[in-house]
Structure formats: C-alpha cells, structure tokens
Amino acid sequence: MSESSAEAALAVASATAAAGNWRRATGLAGAAIGVVAAGAAAGVALERMTVGRGMRKKARLALDSAGPYGALRGMPGKAYADDGTELYYEVDDVEPEGGSAPRRRRLFGRKAPLPVTVVFSHGYCLSQDSWHFQRAALRGVVRTVHWDQRSHGRSGRGVRQVQDDVPVDIDQLGRDLKAVIDAAAPEGPLVLVGHSMGGMTVMALADQYPELIRERVVAVALVGTSSGRLGEVNFGLPVAGVNAVRRVLPGLLKALGQRADLVEKGRQATADLFAGIIKRYSFASRDVDPAVARFAERMIEATPIDVVAEFYPAFTDHDKTEALAHFRDLPVLVLAGIGDLVTPSEHSEAIAGLLPDAELVLVPDAGHLVMLEHPEVVTDRLADLLTRAGAVPAGATVGGYGSSTAQPG
User: Fold this and answer.
1) What is the dihedral of CA 368, 369, 370, 374, to 10 degrees?
2) Which of 56, 192, 295, 344 is most buried, by the most CB atoms less than 10 A from its CB?
3) CA distance 370 to 123
4) 285, 338 in Cβ contact below 8 A?
5) Given a cut of 90, is residue 337 above it in pLDDT?
C-alpha cells in the first residue's frame, strides 16, 4: 500500500471513531494506528488482497507449527522490580573448561575467574525470543541472560501500571534491568546488548547506575535504537499523515487501552491487515522467510493493546543522550538497518557520533528487526565485540545462526 493509502487508512479509522462506531473503530484503529507505537504503522502488501482469507489463515497456522523460532529455552528465574513487578529471565550457562568452578577450586586451590555474562534486552512489543538467532549462535560459547521486559513475554504486568494507572517510563525499565542483573548475574563482568526499547533500557541503566557500568560492564551493543528525539520520527508517512498521527495517537491509545477486550477482538478480525503492517515496519528486504515474518507477527500480536498504550508516552519523553558518556571508554557496537522506519539509522549515527571509538554498522536492505532479518551480520559483529571485550577467546567458534532468507522450494 502506498504512503497516501496508509494516510487514508488512518483517516478512515479516525472518521469512524468520530462517528461513534466504537466496535468498528477499535478494529481499524487498533490495527492501523495502535501498531504505529508498536513498531509498525499503516501499510499493507497489495498481494494480501488477492488471496482468500481462509487460505491465509491456514498458511499462518502452518507457519506457526513449522517455524522453530522462539523455541530455545534456558534455566528460568525471576527477579522483582522496585514496585514488585515479576520479571522473568532465562540463563544459558557455559560449563567451564575442566569441570564446574567449585570443582576447579578444589583441584587448583584457587577461585576460578568469573565468566562474562551477556545480558540481552528486547524491544517494544517483542520478547526475549526476538534474539533467537543470536542466542542459538552463542550457546556454549558464553554465558547469556535473556529477559522479558515488564508486561511483555512471560514477565508480569507492571504493578504500578495496573494498580496506580501510571505510564511506564524508560527510567523504570533501567531499574528493571538492574533487578534482573542483581538476580541473574550479581557478580562478574557484563556485556549489555539492547535492541530498540532494550537499547534505551541499557542507557537508562547507565544513567542511574554509572558505578555499575564503570566497575562491571566490559562492552555494550546498541541495535536499532535511539538516545532521544523520537517524537520527530515520521514512520515513512507523509508530513500531513504523521502530524495527524501525532495529534490523535496519545488520546486514541489511551481510549483503546481502556477497552482492551473489544480492541483485541478487532485485532483478531483484522489479522491480515495487522500482518501486513507488521511486515512493512519490521523488515526492509523482500525475501524474508515467511516463518520469520510470522514469528515477528506472533510476538507483536501477543502484546495487549493496553500495554501498547502504557508504554507509548515513554518514547516521546525519552532522552538519554548524556548517559552515553558512560560508555565512552568501552568497546561499543552501534548497529542499525538502513531501511528502519521505526528508529531510523540516523539515530544510530547520532549515537556513534557521541562515541567516536564505537563501531558503527549500517546494514543495507534491513529494517527495524535487523537481528531477525540479517542475523548473520548482527551475530558476526556481536561475536567480534565479545572477542574485543575478552568475553570469548579469540579462537572461539560461534555456532550457526540459521537464515532469515526464504529458501527455494
């Protein structure tokens, strides 16, 4: 769908809402507007209009059963945020060479060095499973922690959001990450990896706990993220369309969040539209494996509209430019897709400009979910960062990361 058609879809949704047809409005607005904040906005592939709905539904079910993505699991654990929110995490441990650390201490009479732990933070409306390819590649190579941000994945709903109707802010996410680190990796060196909102979470951690960065963090990777000025992002829409979205979106999301039950029904009824929106704003290349595209769709679908509404204001207010100074003396990877419409690559260039020793990688033909779209690039650059930081030996071999490219039949 062209950008003008996208703008028309937004206008129709707004007009329907204004006419008072709530059920229809929640379906259209929940799919065409609410997803703007989720990392997807109006824009649907034309071919979806030429294929029967029943056939598309069967195809989605087949992809759900066939795709292996998101199936990796580790040792589960729970951390608790400062407001009591339950935060779910998983640890992929590495058996130290020569046996366990306690056994080596008995054998050699000294304490073994603590392993580096790589902590992965995911983006808005995703889950820890969004790092599937990188997780698969690093298994057995380095200790990793994957966690679900509050109200996402397997973590609990934000206590303050439910009890006090308080929107989330990025500082809260930074404190959540600190709670996960305290529970899952209380000692030893750390590498922090964040995508999109996860990168902002890492910045918030640095802003509030600079001593942790100074004393324990040995490297940082910021993928498809921003240090601020997200209110200026146009999502690839014309100026008039973007201005309309900015004007109505906060109030509309709040209203939709208050009628989440109806909106979820609307999202189910408009699954085809929703899928096209997600694909447009997640990927830039045309040959993404349909199973990978469906995997991303499932993660975003799993995020309730009231959670979308709770988190949206945080991005407009986000500004952690000054916090980047805490990473200045560390090995840093800044990576983004050139075709990212959600956190444009210019935002990564701005981050790298403030960290002159950082490695800046701009991936051609890649969108917002670059770690799923081009996993080989992200994994290779991340493995190099870990080597430079001393997290893995120079001769270590990172495992296969699979492919997100559609395979010929």
Assistant:
1) -140
2) 192
3) 12
4) no
5) yes
Q: SS3 for 117? A: strand
**What domains lie within the chain, and their CATH numbers?**
3-66+236-287 (no CATH), 75-228+318-388 (3.40.50.1820)
CA distance 288 to 306: 30
Average pLDDT, the chain: 78
Give 118-132 pLDDT, tens digit per residue.
999 999 999 999 999
- Asked whether the beta carbons of 349 and 355 are under 8 A apart, the reply is no
Between strands 332-337 and 86-92, the pairing is unpaired
Q: Which residue has the tokens 């329907």?
A: 16
3-state secondary structure 381-395: HHHHHHHHCCCCCCC
DSSP state of 159: H
Q: From CA 29, how far away is CA 26, in angstroms rounded?
A: 5
Place of tokens 């983004």: 336
Convert the pLDDT of each residue in 359-405 to its tens digit: 999 999 999 999 999 999 999 999 999 999 998 877 677 765 544 44
Is the Cβ–Cβ distance between 41 and 35 less than 8 Å? yes
| Token pair belonging to 131 | 């790092």
Does residue 37 surpass a pLDDT of 50? no
Strand 217-223: give its sheet, edge to edge. 75-80, 86-92, 143-147, 117-121, 190-195, 217-223, 332-337, 359-363
Residue type, 239: V
Alpha helices (H) along 302-374: 305-317, 345-354, 370-373
How many angstroms separate the CA atoms of 261 and 269, rounded?
A: 13
pTM as predicted = 0.79
> Helix %, strand %, coil % for the chain, to 5?
50, 10, 35
